[in-house]
Amino acid sequence: MQTLTVGLAERSYPIHIGADILTQAELLLPHLPQKQAVVVTNTTIAPLYLETLRSTLHMHGIKIIPIILLDGEEYKNAETLGQIYDALLHNHCERKTPLIALGGGVIGDITGYAAATYLRGVPFIQIPTTLLAQVDSSVGGKTGINHPLGKNMIGAFYQPQVVITDSATLNTLPDRELHAGIAEIIKYGLIRDPELFVWLEQNIPKLLARDVAALDYAIRRSCENKADVVAADEREGAAGIRALLNLGHTFGHAIENGMGYGVWLHGEAVAAGTILAAQLSSRLGLLNQTDVERIQNIFKLARLPIAAPNLGVEKYLQLMGLDKKVEGGKIHFVLLKSIGHAYINKNVPDEMLRQTLTEHTIHA
């Protein structure tokens, strides 16, 4: 097992990474202030890992209250959030009752938002079980739900007490979900870690084959990158460093919303969105064609989409106009100058954006 730290002064917290660590109660017990905890999970993960977690905590006198939600991005909404509140109130959960998110990004995001808002804040613990959650969404404190008009438009920054990343849970992850998680690993290479990008070009076949050493390395390297960024810029402040983590996400969120939540996985949409960002960067004269091709090739190698669906230019512009990175009516895009060097462009010419969307989307 390896342990990293997200450095946020008195709110710093550890990320434990390793295989078969879900049964190591000592990783959880210091963060459980009372003899009960709520575990929020879904109908897919509960049969796989809920009993393991229950048994681990039961041996130390901790009772768990399970909340089992339906599985899917389409359930990351206010109605499902209300179900969590209902269960917390019904069970008389208190300010020291921790909420444990056992699942992927949807479970982590919605549980975190419930923890941030129930009784104005209760302890929150992340146990991510998908690759995407393990390398990205479980770290950094972004929580929230979707709205019919936009993804993640309602939420809060709320840091967990601890992140426990058991890479053995990836053994039950469907291939499509595994591939989607690799998209976020590639992102770190593109925005700030060119050495990781080169490593991925050589080792993605090992990730696809679920090689334990390769997965643990990719998870650790991704978490190191995320922790560094979050420590420098927790809330996407004036420095703008954290906003770079949204490479491909402005286009990607539009794809997820426009196609209907759950049709495209988040990582799939980010992959196609990153290709669009690379093409736009090239059109602006920033990214050379060799790098564009390397980016296309690595997503293709990871068995991810390299073409975005044709929602129509106006639909894309409408959906991207709802993005959180809009300021003064202008969309702020994360673009690339080279592999490993991202920046924020606040003034993309409308015509270049329209040309990119016209030429590099295909019929869904």
Describe this structure as you would to a colleague.
This protein is α/β, with parallel strands linked by helices. The protein is built from twelve helices and 15 strands. The protein has helices spanning 46-58, 78-90, 105-117, 131-137, 175-191, 194-208, 212-232, 249-259, 266-283, 289-301, 313-320, 350-359; strands spanning 2-6, 13-18, 36-42, 63-69, 99-103, 124-128, 142-147, 150-157, 162-166, 308-309, 326-327, 330-331, 333-338, 341-345, 361-362. Strands 1-2-9-6-5-3-4 form a seven-stranded mixed β-sheet, sandwiched between helices. It has a two-stranded antiparallel ribbon with strand order 7-8. Helix 5 (175-191) packs parallel to helix 9, helix 6 runs antiparallel to helix 7 and helix 9 runs antiparallel to helix 10 (289-301). It is globular and about 60 Å long.
Short description:
With 364 residues, the protein is an alpha/beta fold. Helix content is 44%, strand content 20%.
Q: Can you lay out the helices and strands and say which pair or pack?
A:
Layout: E1 2-6, E2 13-18, E3 36-42, H1 46-58, E4 63-69, H2 78-90, E5 99-103, H3 105-117, E6 124-128, H4 131-137, E7 142-147, E8 150-157, E9 162-166, H5 175-191, H6 194-208, H7 212-232, H8 249-259, H9 266-283, H10 289-301, E10 308-309, H11 313-320, E11 326-327, E12 330-331, E13 333-338, E14 341-345, H12 350-359, E15 361-362
Parallel strand pairs: 2-9, 3-4, 3-5, 5-6, 6-9, 10-15
Antiparallel strand pairs: 1-2, 7-8, 11-12, 13-14
